[in-house]
Amino acid sequence: MLPPARPIPERGGADPRSLPEGVLCSERPLVMRGLVSHWPIVRAAGSADAAIDYLKGFDHGGMPVVATVAPPGESGRVFYNADFSGFNFRREQVPMGVALETLRKYLADEAPPSIYVASTTIDTFLPGFRAANDVDFGSRDPLASIWIGNRSRIAAHQDLPQNLACVAAGRRRVTLFPPDQLSNLYIGPIDATPAGQAVSLVDFAAPDLDRFPRFAEAMRHAQVAELGPGDAVLIPSMWWHHVEGLEPFNVLVNYWWRDAPAWMDTPMNTLMYAMMTIRDLPPEQRAIWQDAFRHYVFEPGEATADHIPPHARGVLAPLDEARARDLRARLIQRINR
Predict the structure, then answer these.
(1) Mapped to the 3 state alphabet, what secondary structure does 185-235 carry?
(2) Average pLDDT, the chain
(3) Domain at 141, CATH number
(4) What are the C-alpha distances in Å from 86 to residues 99, 153, 189, 324?
(5) How far is CA 282 from each of CA 277, 287, 294, rounded to the nearest angstrom?
(6) Domain count of the fold of the chain
(7) 216-254 as b/e, with b when 16 or more CB fall inside 10 Å?
(8) What is the rounded distance in angstroms from the CA atom of residue 236 to the CA atom of residue 25?
(9) Is residue 230 domain-shared with residue 330, that is, in the same domain?
């Protein structure tokens, strides 16, 4: 039997017009009940029909959105197919209004197909929505996206940015794991993924502990919360999160930001390139490169560059946008040789 997940800690009194720095920089998850309960979309969400009508009021009818569609037998799980040769869903480009009306059509259906408009940029597809439904991040300028769908189960995955997820309609169950649970979550392929991020292969609705025995250890570190309209959860960078939409109509608004310069590339590029260049070396050579990464990347100190005149340190000096641009050009030239 799996141990129960602990509740995600809650913080009261947060003001969406001025979120404290301690929240925005938190390295631990936080639930903020009612943070965005004043939003008009939340007030409309007492009725799925009213929420759909509200969203349609911002649809400009221009470029289509991408809808993920899975058959009823998948029970909302967005995942691979049985032999991992592909996926258990298809993607369709449809107008936002068509996606919303299709969701409306299935509201009373007990076994509808799974329909999921995932991570759609709000300012592009629903212009004007944020004028009345927004959070003030001060000097930060997060990317705001919206997720619209019926019942869904999104496998546990990581995201590099910090993430404030606000439930605008329906209910969500969020299960979180610290980054160090990587080996206990049985992560699938990193270069062929359902939606861009590598995902846990464990079906949280029916965990197979014979196949995935270490998942029991992961659950000892799990935190969970069920969120209703107006509630929000802060998911720190690289925390694993499994997200379920629990109602026939669900809307989630996400804000994504990094507390790092915009010119910094994703470390995933480094990981992929290291797999190509380091992982399959003989053990003795891998150990050499492990020490090199420690010296230059993970534990730089006086021994790294203090013996080099400051003007001659190149990439060993603190990086800025110009140096990063030059380094990126050098890397591209090396890779394309």
Answers:
(1) CCECCCCCCCCCCCEECCCCCCCCCCCCCCHHHHHCCCEEEEECCCCEEEE
(2) 96
(3) 2.60.120.650
(4) 24, 18, 12, 37
(5) 12, 9, 19
(6) 2
(7) eebbebbbebebbbbbbbbbbbbbbbbbbbbbbbbbbbb
(8) 8
(9) no
Element (H, E) at 157: strand 152-157
Share of the chain above pLDDT 70, in %: 100
**DSSP states of 260-328:** S-TTPPPHHHHHHHHHHHTTTS-HHHHHHHHHHHIIIIIS--HHHHTTS-GGG-GGGSPP-HHHHHHHH
At 190, is the pLDDT very low, low, confident or very high (cuts 50, 70, 90)? very high
- Please name the residues in contact with 146: beta carbons below 8 A apart, sequence gap of 6 or more: 117, 120, 122, 125, 126, 129, 168, 251, 252, 253, 254
Nearest to 80 by CA among 89, 69, 67, 92: 89
Residues 118 and 201 in one domain: yes
Q: What is the pLDDT of residue 44?
A: 97
Q: Sheet containing 172-177: which strands, arranged edge to edge?
A: 6-7, 223-227, 172-177, 240-245, 152-157, 77-78
H or E, element range at 99? helix 96-105
CA nearest to 232, candidates 137, 299, 167:
167
Structural domain for 185, as ranges = 6-257
Non-local (6+) Cβ contacts of 24 within 8 A are 137, 140, 162, 234, 257, 259
pTM of the model: 0.95
Structure-token pair, residue 309:
């005149």
Six-digit token string for 244: 């379920």
- What tens digit of pLDDT does each residue of 58-77 get? 998 888 999 999 999 999 99
In this structure, the answer to whether residues 273 and 324 fall within a common structural domain is yes
- Segment 292-335, tens digit of pLDDT: 999 999 999 999 999 999 999 999 999 999 999 999 999 999 98
Give the alpha-carbon dihedral of 324, 327, 332, 334, to 10 degrees: -170
Residue 262 lies in a domain: no
Look at the chain and count its residues: 337
Residues 55 and 191 in one domain: yes
Residues 153 and 283 in one domain: no
